[in-house]
Amino acid sequence: MRRWKKILSASLVAVMVGSLGMTAFAEDTSANEPIDTTVSNYNLTEEETSGKNQEEIKALQQQKIDEVTQQAYDMKIASNELENWPEGPATYGEAGIVMEAKSGAILYAKNIDGKAYPASITKILTALVALENGNLDDKITITQNSVDCVAEGDAYIGMIAGEEISLNDALYALLMASANEVAYAIAENVGGLGYDGFIAKMNERAKELGAVNSDFENPNGLNAQNHYTTARDMALITQELLENHEEFKTIAQTQQYTIGATNLVNQARTFQQSDLMFYEGNDYYYPKTIAGKTGYTDEALNTLVSCAADDNLELISVVLKTHGKNVYPDSVNLLEYGFNNFAKYTIADYEDSADFKEIDPNAYVVLPENVNFQSLDYEITQDDTNSSTGTVTYTYQGNPVGKAAVTLSDEYLQKDNTENEAQVSGDKSDSETQKQAQSTIPREVILVICVIAAVLLLIIVWRAVLKHLRKKKVETNRKRRREVDKD
């Protein structure tokens, strides 16, 4: 009987799983694990170093560095595959993007969704969350945890536990001197969120901005296995800070800043802007620069966010995991590529679709000379609170080139309502079909149970009959033996 119960249970599970379309195996989520965009690595194996002296190992190490650097330079540039798109420059970084800041148009794309360690460009998001959740005159108290997060070689300005500074001073230390202990203290103090709450807010805000392939574990960018971002994500985060918080440009364009004496330290602290693109007279000076943030760790290599503007465009470039001393030349080349090859086209001057009643007169797309407006595709997203307004997003062969706030035409709204009604009707039909399908599931289960029960019943009856016949035969044989014994 126990065996029968097991068979019946297994049969029922099999029927129900098959009917509901379920899988009996756990989903493989390994593809969702964070990955590093390293095309190779610099580390030599024991086999490679075996039997070699220090000079030979040093030469072999340099050879490997050169090989990896070349591999990064040779990586595919996705935007170069767009038809009639100007060819963008190769870079020594493993990911790079150029985005037009106001429109969100992507002008250059190299591995823009590849995950990599951001290093100190993380502090752009830290600044954004701090400005959105605090006031510039808020008090920031340096804790022992803030001090202890800094290891030898990490950037800091020598704050000690118990010191108090304003959030305004803290932001200058954060964005200019890249002070890691100050970044930690900002997270501990701003908005009453607490350290963990601040980190959670960083990730929440990033996702809201569309930075869906990033994860931030700390406010300073010091290396952590699951602290990563992408070029696209950092451009989106920077776009929000640049366009909506003037403090970013004000701080970035300050070459030297002094924090006065504090409650515990009588001496003032003076530090300089770490981004060399702001300094006239050096090889990396770029006069169009309006904001930026540098980054470096041994794992991340050089990272850099640069914002620049001329009379036509405002651009954001992001480069990740840049090999060698190429982070500034690469960034300048990317920005110059954007300024020299693209222009704004006012959407209202070119759009003639009957879908729109009004289009934001200031909205534009950003295109190269050989791509015309008529070759663009667009998608309309209606506002949640008012279906007659929304946003139209333009793409060229899948690449975003601009967007505009719009008021939708009566013709479009009528067409949209008709489609929605058809969809509702279809959903109802599908629902009825699903109900009918679901209603058959118990019958199938019952049928299987009945069949199995009938078979088992026959087996039981058959066994009972056999047992009875054997018993009767045994009794007959015994009776015969007794009769023989009597004789």
From TrEMBL:
Active-site positions on this chain: S120 (acyl-ester intermediate), K123 (proton acceptor), S178
Ranges for domain Peptidase S11 D-alanyl-D-alanine carboxypeptidase A N-terminal: 93-322
Keyword Secreted tagged: no
Record carries keyword Cell wall biogenesis/degradation: yes
InterPro entries tied to this protein: Beta-lactam/transpept-like (IPR012338), Peptidase_S11 (IPR018044), Peptidase_S11_N (IPR001967)
Binding positions for substrate per the UniProt entry: K293
The protein's name: D-alanyl-D-alanine carboxypeptidase
GO biological process, one term: peptidoglycan biosynthetic process
UniProt keyword annotations, A-Z: Carboxypeptidase, Cell shape, Cell wall biogenesis/degradation, Hydrolase, Membrane, Peptidoglycan synthesis, Protease, Signal, Transmembrane, Transmembrane helix
Organism: Coprococcus comes
Molecular-function GO terms, alphabetical: serine-type D-Ala-D-Ala carboxypeptidase activity
Record's signal peptide: 1-26
Transmembrane segments annotated in the record for this chain: 445-466
Family: Belongs to the peptidase S11 family.
Gene3D superfamilies linked to this entry: DD-peptidase/beta-lactamase superfamily
